[in-house]
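User: Modeling request: complex.
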Amino acid sequence: MQLGRQLFLSFGLVTLISCGDNGNGGGDEPTPVISLSAVSGETQAIEKSGRIAKFQISRTGGSGAVSVEFAISGNSDPEKGSATMTDFELHYSDGGVVAGTTLALSANQNNRVIEVRPLADALHEVPETVTFTLVAGTGYKVGGTSTSHVSIIDAANTDANRKVFLNTFSPQTGVATTASGTASFILQGDNAAGLMNYTFSGLTSQQVDQHIHLTNGPILRDIGFSGPVFDFPWDLSLANGAPFQTDQELLDALFEGRVFVNIHTGNFPGGEIFATFIYDSSVTPPPTTQLTEEEVDLDIVRFLNQATFGATPEDYSALRDQIDADGANRMSVYSEWIESQFQLSQTRYLPFLDAQLPIFLDATGDDEPGHIIRKDAFWTVAAFAKDQLRQRVAFALSQILVVSEQNADVRNAHRGTADYYDTLARHANLTYRELLEEISRHSVMGAYLSHLRNEKENPAAGYFPDENYAREVMQLFSFGLVGRNPNGSIKLGSDNLPIQTYDNEVIKEMAQVFTGLSFSKTVSSGQMLDNNNFNLGSNFGNGYQYRWTEPMKFYADRHDNTEKELFTDSGAQLVIPAGTEPDQELDLVIDALVAHSGTAPYVVERLIQRFVTSNPSPDYIERVAGVFGATGDMTAVIRAILLDEEARNPTVMGDPRFGKFKEPVLQMTAMLRLHQAYSSVVIGDDVSVVPGDGDSYALNYANASQFENAAMLLRTGSMNIGQEALMSPSVFNFYSPDFAPTGVLSNNSLVAPELELVTETQIYTAFNTHLGLIRNGKIRNNRYTRENGTIAQELLRVRLRDDRVMAIWNGAAGDSSAKATALAEYLDFYMNAGRLKYLGVSSTLTELSNALAASNVGSGELFELATYGSALLPEFMVQK
Amino acid sequence: MKGPKELTRRDFISRGLAGATALSVTGLGGLLHSEIIQAQTAGDYKALVFLFLAGGNDSYNMLAPISGALRTRYDSGRGFIALPSQDLQPISLAQPVDLFDGTTHSDFGFHPNCLRLAQLFNAGDLNVMCNAGNMITPVDRAAYNNGTVALPPQLFSHADQQRQLQSEPNNPFRYGWGGRMAELLTAYNTDLLVSPLITLSGLNAFQVSRDSLINPYGLSNDGALALNSFNGLRRPMVENSMSGAAIGNDLFGQKYAQVFQSARKADVIVRAAFDEAEATGVDYDGIFLAAGGTNTKTQRRLKTVAKMIAGRNSTTNLRPIFFISMGGFDTHQNLLGDHADLMAELDASLKGFRDALVAQGDFDSVVTMVGSEFGRTFTPNGNNAGAGSDHGWGGHLMFMGGAVNGGRLLGVHPDFRLDQGLDTGRGRWIPTSSGSQSAAELARWMDVPEGELLTMFPSLTNFGGAPAPAIIV
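Assistant: Request completed. Predicted assembly structure:
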């Protein structure tokens, strides 16, 4: 039976009237004290399976037979379901039906269990609660607990009991559109909640909103983000304004086909397409999947492509062996790997730069400009550093906390810029809070966003502090322009518009925080000294670079120490009292920036986009934002990103919307690593590794053990592929996080930041650069080689090795066609985590292997096609 | 892929898209076939070039008063970043410009490094729409301060204001006005192989079309690139993999393949255009050099645009829309030094471009708009000559071409009074006209049907429903 409202059945009232306290009236035996309580673990009854719930009565005192009265009531929350006597029967567990509302204990019986046996019906009901309450009566006292709740559900939450609602999208009334799509809602067995999935395409214009609606009624649930929806949880709770008094009415509406989802667009703000959920009892949802051995293999490579600069056979084998040894629990193996990566000694750019500065001279004996060495070091580090994960995190952070060598100061302060990158890497497993403070104080950032030597205001004299850093530290480095919920969706204010996180008055006040910062160090006679001159200039000579590697300090007399009214979060405004000491003030401001409710989802979404997928689900963002915490625990964040179910479930490889377009830099590093890029300059910490025949040279470097064995110096010079680390055109990074290419991606409300780089010109340039590297190797122009011929020009040429390609070719059995298939699949395995073979529908794989089969092996054509194809063909460009 | 003979009306609309999915059939713009023929036979060719100054150009040092009360207020407001009046390059106005305080002013000069711009202005080849900016509806200071007027979302933020100048000052972003214009001019742009939207500076908001029908074509600084050694087994391997059917349902890979196909299709046309330009005998390098050019990226790009225009017979597109972005304008520090370099580059770039267009006979059919996402604070952010200026609001738009109503300062110029009038703080001037008003005027010049202007620029309704007058003759 369904209850429209709370029903209180008080069968015990009559006895209450005659209730009198007999006290110890009998004189011979104490009055029994009766309690009624739940039976632990037995409080739920299930209609479908017939599972029984239980409660019990107990007594203390007395030993004679006694009858007690109880009352039955429903759920105290009138919106929730209540069960009545028609939904169940009460039986004693030791036999017999409970008569009316009286429970009996026989003589000497101190405890009795009562079963609540559900009566199955054909109705679809929300979970219903029934409450049993002991009431006072003659011959006993009520003591201890007197109430027990039991819930009765239709069916258990198992895979088999899920119910499926389906439909396709159709145009709304009066709307001309060819948009289409499909939708499902999978309701769990107890009817309390379910998961919604839908996709659509072909909208006439940009999507602006999407909601779950009641037919001819209000919005039941806003979906706080745009685009397709995967496993969106909906708990069928009553929204404000819904014309329902109870959850049951909403469930009825769902089963009656009165609930739909619709997509609102710019052209059709009232809704362009909709899909009504129709129950279809003939559909069975797919069972939960288990990974096969092949899928575990693919997932290892996927993991490595997400977490390193490119999967290699060595890294794959190491993880595979550990998983085999660990009983196939790959998650714990990944987790250990993350831990061990962060334990490795950090590969730092600054000492690596310092080791090379004296080596490379131009024809007149002058040092090579340091920024060239620093830039080239990126490829060596990406290809050979052991601390791959830390370096990948640093590269991701360099695209959030952006400085760029397009700025002359950043370029010329080469040691400072190397140190800046080292700072990012050092904090890869620390906190975002400490990182944000360090980069705020870093003089390279000070030069890039111009808060270095920023003077406090003097309105009378007509000048004001520089607002540059104040703006970007909020807009780009912490919480962004609009308020965000933990799942990354935009927070709306009471006016239904996005909440602005700050206005220009806050910028002006924030600019005062970043006044009074300048260099802390200077140099005299080659010695680093403390600096006390606020106006010390930006000198870039090799002897003057100390100032760029040491943090800026506050000059109190240049710092504005008035009160500052800063941003407001969750109703609380950050106000810095006048006279606060500047270092303490910066601490407070950085604390608040990172603890701001919008910072975790903002930063987390940027990071997920760099490692895993361009369009993370709100749940994924929320799960990772949950571990970010008030200080931004980076180890926890990176672990959560890489180990999340959304990152690790290999079935997403077949999802056309999942994953990301590979950045040109990562595309290149994957190739350098798989094909073992080399030069003739070994990096070693022992001069004895220098071959004596003059064909090779060793860079003597104390920290060589941070690199893999046989690491080589990769001085490639500029790689003309459309992207270079630390070379973003502006502080807004190489691409916008919400770039949605026109066409099928934007029609699906999907973003693809990396595709902002992809133009006709960029594609041609990248094709030509790859071909040049594959054929001829790559070499920096010849001005900067060591005098006296120690490093001859040719020794620096960077080439790819064909060893692995040839080993697969030669090792594969069969004719050239069979060999070609084996080689194409090998390339697919490492570059694509085997996705093309796994999905089995790739013509790219066929085209690649056809070309390989027909190629001339001896002339190098085989290797050329293998590398060119696996670097540039469209299905190799996407990381899933 | 279908051969050219099999192209359908739908394919015709969908140039640049690999698949025929997601197309609206409502994008033809309503022009009749006979009108297309008429347009072509009339030799009716117009090109729009948008030179975007990224970062926020300091407009009030690009064009500054030389004398009078306005000069006095300029000196006191700008302080350390004021340009000496005697160094400015004087211009003569066809008529005095209205100031916000109701007075007029005539005595202005361009930046000291902009002698050529002053000459172009005086010769009637250039005009300026004063103090334009992103606005949804007219704003006054009291309403701004009270928060009782709708403002463009995220005023003073680079990314947002750039997007808004290139589209409309509202959220969410739906299309750029260049992209929308191309859609409405489909009848003029009939080339199936190369897009009428051409970018020299990568993808941008300006050239995003509303119904996703037209993808911009990305051209390199120096023109068409060739694909090296694209032969043997390599070629079929790549071409077959890039064909739409081959990519399966991966949406990211599909987009990449579309751009590759666009590059291949445009290859021949673009190279033919450059051959045609070569055949004109115009000495592009010499002209840009003589204009003071130093072969900067912007100058190379403008040179390439001039050549594409010279080679226009290689395509049947009669209304191409070009986009170039020039960076470096976010002068938070060292305004006097850095802005001087930028102004010198801009001066030589526009002069070189103008002279090249004149030499090839196209100056009258090309309008170049020069604009930036916002002006900058009038007051400096430091107490020495190394000071800069911060993000502001209103700033100048410039228009160059034989068709423009040259030699004029149009609209209303700020009176430079701080803490009153147009000032929202530190001399962030409230714009006196909206960027969309000027953009609509260019759309009208490009022959977008009058009735479409309000659908392209919905905010025009709040400004009397009409484009900014007088930019075009």
